[in-house]
Amino acid sequence: MRPNNVRTCWADNQPAVSGWLSIGDSYSAEIVGHSGVDCVTIDLQHAMSDISDMIPMLQAISATPATPFVRVPSNDPATIMKALDAGSYGLICPLINSAEEAHAFVSASSYPPLGTRSFGPARGLFYGGPDYAAYANDTLIRLAMIETLEGLAAVEDICAVEGLDGIFIGPGDLGLNLGKGADLDPNDPEVCKAFDRCLSAAKAVSKHAGLFCPNGAVARKRADQGFDFVVLGSDAILLKAALASELSEFSG
Ligand code: 3PY
Ligand code: MG
User: Fold this and answer.
1) Which tens digits make up the pLDDT trace of 99-149?
2) Which residues, 6 or more positions from 41, have their beta carbon under 8 angstroms from its beta carbon?
3) In a designed cystine with 236, which of 22, 69, 179, 199 is the match (CB 3.0 to 4.6 A)?
């Protein structure tokens, strides 16, 4: 089966860097896939994309060196299975609040005996290779999002769920839930405590911890702290920032 770049990074004790697609288009997916990132995450939760946009985006990422990931809109087994069958090599599931929810996520994304994923890998087989069924459980990656107070309170139990590769913090939602606003101050002591708790919970059981970062500088800081799956901002954030910067240069 084709290897997963993110697992390769982790095996080398390196953080994996993900691009993040908010623009539901195959050409921007291809551009981000050729940027040098290890993987590219198609966001189906908040981006202007739906499941039918996802398939050409996965096809476009397949033509690049990056590994395709999908953030599913919710912990829905049908969507989880569809994203994997379409060739996603990693899933990020939002709003996981308990070990039971994390277990349901792992179950829907894993073939028996570990889980209950139904067999029919479609494009996944073309992308992964003919031995897909035998190696899918060990190759694909499942990250549960910690972004609520319930999720934070249960983070140790969530990290312990068998088959879950790790957690991914949603700083915007977690900030709102902590009463700090969506644009939280990363140096706020309560925020630091929450992030440290998530990182320690994952490391204690040899799992991985990632988070959404708005830019490369924040991602570097988080990777130096021990987070091993970082996002450097979405295509939409980066496009807007690049244009604003050029505009300011132009305007003096
Ligand atoms: C959050 O910040 O809540 C996220 O879900 C990041 O995409
Ligand atoms: Mg969120």
Assistant:
1) 999 999 999 999 999 999 999 999 999 999 999 999 999 999 999 999 999
2) 18, 19, 20, 21, 69, 70, 71, 90, 92, 231
3) 22
User: Which of 221, 246, 237, 210 minimizes the C-alpha distance to 28?
Assistant: 237
- Which residues does 219 contact at the CB level (< 8 Å), separation at least 6? 17, 213, 230, 231, 232
Give residue 182 CA to ligand 2 midpoint distance, Å: 9
User: Which residue has a Cα nearest atom 4 of ligand 1?
Assistant: 170
Is any ligand 1 atom within 6 A of the Cβ of residue 214? no
Atom index in ligand 1 nearest the CA of residue 173 equals 3
CB of 147 within 6 A of ligand 1: the answer is yes
Question: Of 177, 212, 234, which is best to mutate to test ligand 1, by the most ligand atoms within 8 angstroms of its C-beta?
Answer: 212
Q: Record the pTM.
A: 0.97
208 catalytic per annotation: no
**Could you tell me the domains of the chain?**
5-251 (3.20.20.60)
Which of 176-190, 195-209, 216-230 shows the lowest per-residue confidence on average (mean pLDDT)?
Answer: 176-190
**Ligand 1: does its nearest atom lie under 6 Å from the Cβ of 20?**
no
| The one-letter amino acid at 73 | P
CA 42, distance to chain mean position in Å, is 9
pLDDT of residue 186: 82
